[in-house]
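Tokenise the fold.
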Amino acid sequence: MFIIAHLISFLLGYFSLSLIFKETRYYQSLLHLSLSIITGLCLSAYLTFFVFLLFNKFYAWLIVGLNLLSLLGVILLNLKTNKNIRTLLNPFRIHKLSFFSYSVICAFTLLIALYYYVASVHPHGEWDAWAMWNMKMKFLLLSSAPLDDILTNLSWHTHPDYPLLLPLINVWLNSFSHTHMLYVPFITCILLTVSCAMFMYTGLSLFIKKGYALLATLILGFHPYFAFSATQQYADILIALFVLISLICFYLLDKESNPAISILAGLNLGFLTFAKNEGIVFAALLSVIFLIRLWQQRNKQKSNLPCYVLFLITLLIACLPTIIFKLFLAPPNSDILPNISQTGLQMINVNRLAVIFDYLGKEIIHKKWCYIWMLILIMVITKLFKFLKKETLWVTLFFLSYFIIIIFIYLVSTQTRLNWWIPYSLPRIYFYLLPAILFHVFYVYWPQNKKIENT
């Protein structure tokens, strides 16, 4: 039955994006279909969150009804704004397939089979899945006062200050039936992992030759440690997805000033803030580079409202669940802020910094990564000047800034021992950065298409 929930979310995302894209070239692209899956699930999760916010209880009929009502609303708006109804179905049109297209289909079929197999190795996920993310899903579904239990009554090990996007997605998918309570997160992690590979291909195909885009997708998609980490049922895969989508939006805006992409970027960054605490940091850094780029392009825009204004308005609206959750519901973070405000700054010293850099270097060459980081470093070094050019420098600085923040957090840590915390957390950081960094490296390394290619 939860398949029906997936279909409702897909249609909700599809028709919502149709209102944004309208008659732009992206309206007819595979990118539209890929975005519909993720956007729809996030919108359904947002609607589910507001039901819990108002009633502090799981009401399946209300959640389903609210989603159906929203779907009906966006369909009616599309029918009102689109004179030619057939254009709504353009992305579903199947054109004559080439040999390369069949190769792409075969590759993704194999990826789906691979991810299903890898997910089956740990069907209940890893530690943080059943001890935090899926536990919160169960409380949301079964508790008489779920928000109270999650935010105040559970152990601090469950990180009650973490946003709830992933549990809410799974709660929405359980709205049609509780019999699949453990199976829903299993399928969700596979869907999100496949989506990550799909965005790698559809995103890169807009800018470079499709052969190179497929190569990057195969390198990422068939990487054993990526497949294992992505199917752990953690919220890290959402971070990986949203940061990757953000880079696609950034480079689209870099090529042409488009109001639709500005809105999409703001929406995506809002979702990112509700995925995990790290998402708030990512969204802040990415917002800076988006605003700088949009301000530089303000004179090239033809819309009534400048793109940076549309971006900010959409970002603010999409951040509302995070703002409400962080300001009025969640307890303060117990990992980072106390370190900075109390004795953490006294922990900064050269020896501690050397230990951190030692771990950073060892992680790059660790055998579980199958030398993928070495490949990335070689590609960067051989064309270093291209990574420092005006159009790509901001993204390079974004990644460097995030690593500086991570190093600073490790430096001021007083809550846990570095020799436990870094080996535990660093692989997860490398994991959720890998898709975006690989995308950035391939985008810069290979020759650009003369114009944005429709996929």
Summary: The longest helix spans residues 418-445. The mean pLDDT is 89. The two ends are 32 Å apart (CA to CA).
